[in-house]
Amino acid sequence: MNNKTFIFGHKKPDTDSITSSISLSYLKNQLGENTEPRALGNINKETKYALNYFKLDEPKYLNDVKLQLKDINYHKDFILNEKETIYDGYQYMLKEGLTGVPIVKADNDFVGLLTMKDLSRAFLDAKDNDIFTSYDNILKVLKGKEVCRFDDEIKGKLLVGAYDSNTFKEKISLDNNIILIVGDRQPIIEYAVSSGVRLIVISGNGKINDEYLDIAKNNKVNIIRSEYDSYHVSKLISLSSYLKTMVCSYNPTKFEDTDYVDTVLDVNNKLRHTNYPVVDKNNKCLGLLRITDLTDKTPKKVILVDHNEKLQSVDGIEEATVLEIIDHHNIGSVTTDIPINFRNMAVGSTCTIVYTLYKERKVEIPKEMAGMMLSGILSDTLILKSPTTTETDRQAVYDLAKIADVDYEKYGMDMLKAGTSLEGMSIEDVLYNDYKLYTINDKSFGVAQFFTMNFDDIKKDMDKYIAVLDEVAEGNNYSLVALYVTDIIKNGSYLLFNKKGQEILNQSYDKEVTEGEFIENCVSRKKNVIPLIMDSIAN
Fold first, then answer.
1. 388 with 526: CB under 8 angstroms?
2. In this structure, what DSSP letter does residue 299 have?
3. Closest by alpha carbon to 459, among 516, 497, 513?
């Protein structure tokens, strides 16, 4: 079971989201926890600049935190090798209370599923007299003693020498495909060894004359002596066959350990089986899933940063265990089953809160972690020019810039410039570069923000941008999809929106807005945009 805790920000991650994940993970690990930063989307150019500057790798992508079979305490390593005996399989299932068990080859390659129904056939099918197993398996099942051994593997037709000796010789033809069970009936033993049968099992600890033993050796006849009588030998020896002889040719339904639990439940609702083998992507068997195992689960553990809205979080968040939330936004829709640590501060950046946690826990901040937190604060506060900026943010920037050994104004401007380039970006890339969804009164709306110092690059294709906004709104039944193109030098944003969303924006700004309109003193989505739109929708 994976005990690692994933730390991540929102979908369509911005710099604050990524850098707070990285710096918080480092802090947690220094405190003895096992965490890993993850990203819920592509890393933008601005964030890549920060990571490259401080020589840090991008966090791995996290697709979802839905329950998978690897999060379930199924019967791991409950498997049997195909060369173990049918008797072993029966005893194993009896001991473990199972009605099925996966069968594997060497290196745990999955072969098939053995069930109690299959075993019933072995016990009850009187017509099946084929034996295929090893000499050692027969010794083990019959509690036998080795007399002559020439073959490690035994394969043949089972025959019991029950006739009178003369009748047996007259009616029965023997060859090297015969496995004969006989007591100490020397004439039949002589006939068998002279005919070169594959194996003789002498029941009741019967004896064999030395002269017949010599013939057996010359003809390479395998011989085993058992204390059981002929009846019990005949019943038990069939159970000494390899398990692989019992595995049906059909390919049973199996699941990979990365399959989602809801997928398993959907399949089981149709099949209604009790047991399912679990394999990895290379068809290596990992164990057995009983449907009742699905109640014994260990959900993935997560810590959320820079968001607490369900729509903004990872898919399957409702199936995970949220341990902690670090955020600087309004309280959203994420709920938990247990009390958690929820650190929410009215500051300009999540990284400011993370920096506060470092100070509270008295953990030394290395240069690259200082650079991460500094980058997150500078990004979210627009180099301390955003109206969301607090004195706490400013002090954090001054302190972290010293540790990171940078001029925060120059570094911040270079970082923001790196993120505002439109080179190689499609309209969708611009829209989803920093895009967030919100819900109020059962209405959903999306607001994107893109920083650039050259709005003309977007203005020349404004009709195309509006068409995409219309398409996204219609396709997802959103009341509004707006794109705020922010110019931090002019301290404002150009507004683009879907046509049907205009009424909401008119109410938000208490005037009729137009496509491409410049809104002064509008640089913070959290402070200058979202409250106005929410008030408009709520009223």
1. yes
2. P
3. 516
With b for 16 or more beta-carbon neighbours within 10 A and e for fewer, the 31-55 pattern comes to eebebbbbbbbebbbbbbbbbebbe
DSSP string, 488-529: TTTTEEEEEE-GGGHHHHHHHHTS---TTEEEET---IIIII
- Over residues 450-462, the pLDDT tens digits come to 988 889 999 999 9
Report the alpha-carbon distance of residue 484 to residue 273 in Å, rounded.
54
Three state DSSP letters for 431-473? HHCCEEEEEECCEEEEEEEEECCCCHHHHCCHHHHHHHHHHHH
Mean pLDDT for 353-358 is 98
What is residue 71's DSSP assignment?
Answer: G
Nearest-CA neighbor of 141 among 79, 83, 86, 203? 86
For residue 467, give the H/E element and its range. Answer: helix 462-476
Q: Which amino acid is at 338?
A: I
**Cα atoms found within 13 Å of the Cα of residue 191, Cβ hemisphere only:** 21
Distance CA 300, CA 68 (A): 9
Q: Which residues pair with 343 in a beta bridge?
A: 326
> For 494-526, what is each residue's pLDDT tens digit?
999 999 999 999 999 999 999 999 999 999 998
Structural Rg of the chain based on CA atoms? 37
Q: 69 with 264: CB under 8 angstroms?
A: yes
Q: Which range among 391-395, 405-409, 535-539 shows the weakest confidence by mean pLDDT? A: 535-539
- Of 459, 20, 96, 8, the residue nearest 288 (C-alpha): 96
CATH classification number, 427-538, choose in 1.10.10.10, 3.10.310.20, 3.40.50.720, 3.40.50.1220 = 3.10.310.20
Q: Where do you find CATH 3.40.1390.20 in the chain?
A: 144-227
Domain 5-65+300-419 has CATH 3.90.1640.10: yes
The CA distance from 39 to 61, in Å, is: 5
**What is the rounded CA–CA span in Å between residue 116 and residue 219?**
40
Token pair 């017949």: residue: 212
